[in-house]
Amino acid sequence: MTTAATVSEAAGNSEESSPYALSHLDALESEAVHIFREVAGEFERPVILFSGGKDSIVMLHLALKAFAPAAVPFSLLHVDTGHNFPEVLEYRDRTVKKHGLRLHVASVQDYIDAGKLRERPDGTRNPLQTVPLTEKIQSERFDAVFGGGRRDEEKARAKERVFSLRDEFSQWDPRRQRPELWQLYNGRHAPGEHVRVFPLSNWTELDVWQYIAREGIELPEIYFAHDREVFKRSGMWLTAGDWGGPKNGETVEKRLVRYRTVGDMSCTGAVDSDATTLDAVIAEIAASRLTERGATRADDKMSEAAMEDRKREGYF
């Protein structure tokens, strides 16, 4: 009996047999490079959100590839909560200097000091990032803002288009999003509006790690298992520090942990792990049944629709 696969192989059309077939990482890279070049052609003032986390690091690597040997034609933007991990900030600054890039920083602490924002009772500053982010976008007149969001992270992000239109208040309205058939992206926007662009939309966490391994991309050491002083709050291992932890009754202990995602120290949890190498991390991720945000982000557990609510307000 002749099967479709047999016919395809006989005709020399099998993906596996073709010397021109793209691997799944090549296909993802090609799509992302196309998106970066499309934005460069359609917009006047794009910017890349860069936190020093693995997704933004991969985005910058792709942007460098997209325009090499020319320089990346975009600047970077980081929203600094004031409670970022020191090793991640060191990586951010070193990377900016290495590639000769311009970095814009929107500081949550500056807004608190000016009385424009108030500390939350739970101490987390992640929700406070929205106002500094949206005001920086407006003041710098950025019309396209690259983000490292992926559809596999969280259900609200699974709804996102690659080009996500935001209104003059940076708010996301699902009803205004355009269809993206055949990788045709519509960047049209009115004055004051902008478009959030997600080149890694179709990537998974495992894809990101496999790509990092293939490309030999350097990461902050925080992503690999190391001894760290942590304490447990709401089921998560949080880093002890001046940001407000631990409280009375919370005990600090030294554990072998690593981070799957990085953000504000007050709401980003570490996971127990002995993965000290890229291969070990990839094996760990492949076996995990929890998404990185489900496993390590307290701010996403505030309510069933926490991420969607923040996206509507202008969050990443």
From TrEMBL:
<keyword id="KW-0548">Nucleotidyltransferase</keyword>
<keyword id="KW-0547">Nucleotide-binding</keyword>
<dbReference type="InterPro" id="IPR011784">
    <property type="entry name" value="SO4_adenylTrfase_ssu"/>
</dbReference>
<dbReference type="Pfam" id="PF01507">
    <property type="entry name" value="PAPS_reduct"/>
</dbReference>
<dbReference type="InterPro" id="IPR014729">
    <property type="entry name" value="Rossmann-like_a/b/a_fold"/>
</dbReference>
<comment type="similarity">
    <text>Belongs to the PAPS reductase family. CysD subfamily.</text>
</comment>
<feature type="domain" description="Phosphoadenosine phosphosulphate reductase">
    <location>
        <begin position="46"/>
        <end position="269"/>
    </location>
</feature>
<keyword id="KW-0808">Transferase</keyword>
<dbReference type="InterPro" id="IPR002500">
    <property type="entry name" value="PAPS_reduct_dom"/>
</dbReference>
<keyword id="KW-0067">ATP-binding</keyword>
<dbReference type="InterPro" id="IPR050128">
    <property type="entry name" value="Sulfate_adenylyltrnsfr_sub2"/>
</dbReference>
<dbReference type="GO" id="GO:0005524">
    <property type="term" value="F:ATP binding"/>
</dbReference>
<dbReference type="GO" id="GO:0000103">
    <property type="term" value="P:sulfate assimilation"/>
</dbReference>
<protein>
    <recommendedName>
        <fullName>Sulfate adenylyltransferase subunit 2</fullName>
        <ecNumber>2.7.7.4</ecNumber>
    </recommendedName>
</protein>
<dbReference type="GO" id="GO:0004781">
    <property type="term" value="F:sulfate adenylyltransferase (ATP) activity"/>
</dbReference>
<feature type="region of interest" description="Disordered">
    <location>
        <begin position="293"/>
        <end position="316"/>
    </location>
</feature>
